[in-house]
Amino acid sequence: MQYRNLGKWGLKVSEISLGSWMTELNGLGAAETARQCIRAAYDAGVNFFDCADAYSGGEAEKFLGAALRDYKRSSYVVSSKAFFPVGRGANDWGLSRKHLFEQVENSLKNMKLEYLDLFFCHRFDPTTPVEETMQALSDLVAQGKILYYGVSEWSPVQLCKAVSVVKELHLRPLSVIQPQYNMVDRYIEDEILQICTENGIGIVPFSPLAQGLLTGKYRKGQPLPAGSRATHQADKQINNLLTDDNLDKVEELSKVAGNLGISLSVLALAWILRLPQISSVITGASTPDQIEANVAASGFRIPADALEEIEKILGYHPFVRRIG
After folding, report:
1. Is 240 helix (H, G, I), strand (E, B) or coil?
2. What is the structure's pLDDT at 219?
3. HEC string for 140-194
4. C-alpha 40, offset from chain centre
């Protein structure tokens, strides 16, 4: 496993990290399998574990905290997030000072920790001034409850506003963002990547395999694999990605991966890590074998000619409007 700094800051995180969004805790043996995944990740050198207060109604935080108690606290980095509703009350969601302070305390209680290494604003809250949110996060850093903070899925304008407020009010810095980023969703390359570069903000993307599309298990003209996410996911995110165009790209990308002697998933993860602004890639895993497969991407450098071929296959065109 190789490690990178969180943006320009001193914290080192593993190139491959483990997220808890899809952690399955219900059913016979599910919790033990999830525990084995965490152990396999830690043993493979993963030191960054991502979670959120809304995952499994707080149970994911409790489970992750219990699993990590086997290890020395200084040896791992753990994160959580807040924004989505955790109750029915008027203040049980959002990014108000009240909700952020309460949810940090709740996450610490769930995981039985004294501090969180990273804390994210899960989404932008249009009902709360950015100044209030940034001040609250800065104060939580000053109190030692969190060490670094960032945002997830904020627009370029929202991110710039947050950075501006931090500088204007001389607050603790916004250090990291957690956007969606993968071969078929490259929106951060339009503007967000430059904003992060200029401000030393680390990027820890989620959904690097596009809900499983970039594992290669979904193929054009073939039935959905039994038990796959596309057969049961409630919001149908993966199903919306299974277009003929995307599946054609998967076929071509699989050939590139085969020529390099790696799996498509390793190619997809290593492709994200080609960018120096990426600090860590947040992966999911339902079995320890998937952990092993994902970790193989750390340190793998895609040759220049293969990168050129990938760009031709993806056919991405950044948004540019020329004036004058």
Report:
1. helix
2. 82
3. HHHCCCEEEEEECCCCHHHHHHHHHHHHHCCCCCEEEECCECECCECHHHCCHHH
4. 19
Tokens of 283: 């992966």
Per DSSP, helices labelled H in the chain are 30-43, 59-68, 97-111, 130-142, 156-168, 192-199, 237-241, 244-260, 264-272, 288-295, 304-314
Residue-range domain boundaries for the chain:
3-209+263-300
Query: Pick from 287, 276, 102, 112: which is nearest to 197 by CA?
Result: 276
Do residues 190 and 217 lie in contact, with contact meaning Cβ atoms separated by under 8 Å?
Answer: no
User: Which residue is associated with the tokens 């040896």?
Assistant: 75
Using CA atoms, how far apart are residues 153 and 135, in angstroms rounded to an integer? Answer: 20
pLDDT in tens, 5-22: 999 999 999 999 999 875
- Between strands 116-121 and 77-82, the pairing is parallel
**Catalytic choice (55, 76, 181, 218):** 55
User: Can you list the residues of the chain whose pLDDT is less than 50?
Assistant: none
pLDDT digits (tens, 9 = 90+) for 158-197: 999 999 999 999 999 999 999 999 999 999 999 999 999 9
Q: Rounded to whole angstroms, what are the CA distances from 61 to 107, 120, 249, 278?
A: 7, 14, 36, 25
Q: Is the dihedral of CA 89, 91, 95, 100 positive or negative?
A: negative
Sequence-ordered list of residues with C-beta below 8 angstroms from that of 133, at least 6 positions apart, any chain: 95, 96, 97, 100, 121, 125, 162
Asked if residues 269 and 209 have their Cβ atoms less than 8 Å apart, the reply is yes
Residue 324 pLDDT: 74
Q: Per CATH, which fold does 3-209+263-300 belong to?
A: TIM Barrel (3.20.20)
Residue 3 is among the residues annotated as catalytic for this protein: no
Which residues is 4 bridged to in the sheet?
Answer: 13
Length of the chain: 324
Given a contact cutoff of 8 angstroms between Cβ atoms, the answer to whether 298 and 47 are in contact is: no
Rounded CA separation 213/236 (Å) = 12
pTM of the model: 0.93
What is the β-pairing status of strands 202-203 and 3-5? unpaired
